[in-house]
Amino acid sequence: MPEQTSSEPAPAATPGASQGLRLGSVLGAPVLLAWSWFIAAGVIAVLVSPWVARVRPDLGWLSWVVGLLFSVVLFGSVFLHELAHGVTGRLFGYRVAAIELNVWGGFTRFEPRTEPDSPRAAWVSFTISVIGPVVNLVLGGLGWLVLDALPQGSVPWLLLFGFTFANLILGAINLLPGIPLDGGWALQAVFWRFTGSPYAGTIAAAWFGRLIAVGFVVVALLAPLVQGQRPDLVTVGWTAAIAAMVWFSASDAAKHATQARRVETYDMRRVIQPAIAASWDAPLDSALTYTDPHTGRQPLIVVLDEQGLPNGLVNRQAAAGHAGTGRQVHEFTRPLGPWIGAPADITAPHLLESLTHRPKAAFCLIMQGEALVGFVDLQEFFDELLAH
């Protein structure tokens, strides 16, 4: 499944990826085999070997070898699934940061998008998401066509049968419309396309993911009962483990999307204070008595230095006792500190994006054309976002 959270690649590993074996590189990105894969391989061998022993009782202990080979075949299918995501992403101009195979299957991690959110970006995300399951279904179909060409019950037939079954199941399950499955990210892209918000789409698709997680457990429990049988504890156990992974992954995606959604919908007027610019030698009296015509409030006074650049803020408390004395504004300023400029229609996401280039900025000056009209204390802005 494609991983939506991106990170920078590193030579031996990728931030956010599990540590493990580096199998090589593809599409300019490392292919990592997480240590947890060996746990999955052992579990798969335990589950598959009894079936192999029933079909071929003459194999004896070699049925375990076939079970281990099946785990390799299964993860080969997962790799082709992830490779399909990566190739499709590259065709649309994305860079692959890493491909990882792990206990839950795998993921393809892309580097951050540089293009703005748009209908095209939503449909690109949709295409990247669905291509992996489609490749599995195609591989499963091809395996089904070739299956009759091999002697039934032979080891190659058993492995091809496993390959066919695994790909059909991988394709079908991953197309279910709930995050973290590929079908869930495809659904997210559809919501994104029609709501204009990738975060709203993620929240909606994550709820579908939770419903699917519950559905897995319900089916594992009820399907045998409907047939008059008792639920198999092993089947219920691994189904519950998968359901838990789906539930917690969906919840985590929803949590992060909710936080991002708050930023997306945040009203900057909550933290923009009215402000005016005053020249270095402006009379203190006229600056102190000025009232903002839109809010009726006395604005902050940003003092420009002799080169016309913002230099400091007038300390109204210190200046209050000097009205009528003919003093100038620069005599009552405190240093402004690092600042960044922004247009009056700045949004919270765009301000955060701008701050990635000026991470030390402590204040934001809001401009209406050439005129200073507002002031944002960035610490207050961050505190507001967290409390919003």
Overview of the molecule:
This protein is of the alpha/beta class and 388 residues long. It folds into 3 domains: 1-175, no CATH class; 186-265; 268-387, CBS-domain (Roll), CATH 3.10.580. 52% of the residues lie in helices and 17% in strands. The chain has helices at residues 36-55, 62-91, 119-147, 155-174, 182-195, 198-226, 233-265, 284-289, 316-319, 348-355, 378-387; strands spanning 2-3, 20-26, 29-34, 96-102, 105-110, 273-278, 300-304, 310-314, 333-335, 339-343, 363-368, 371-377. The strands form 2 sheets. A 7-stranded mixed beta sheet has the order 9-8-7-6-12-11-10. The longest helix has 33 residues, at 233-265. The relative contact order is 0.07. The chain crosses the membrane at residues 31-53, 59-80, 122-145, 157-179, 199-226, 233-250.
Q: What's the domain count?
A: 3
Largest beta-sheet characterization = 7 strands, mixed
Strand order of the largest sheet: 9-8-7-6-12-11-10
- As residue ranges, the low-confidence spans are 1-18
- The beta-strand count equals 12
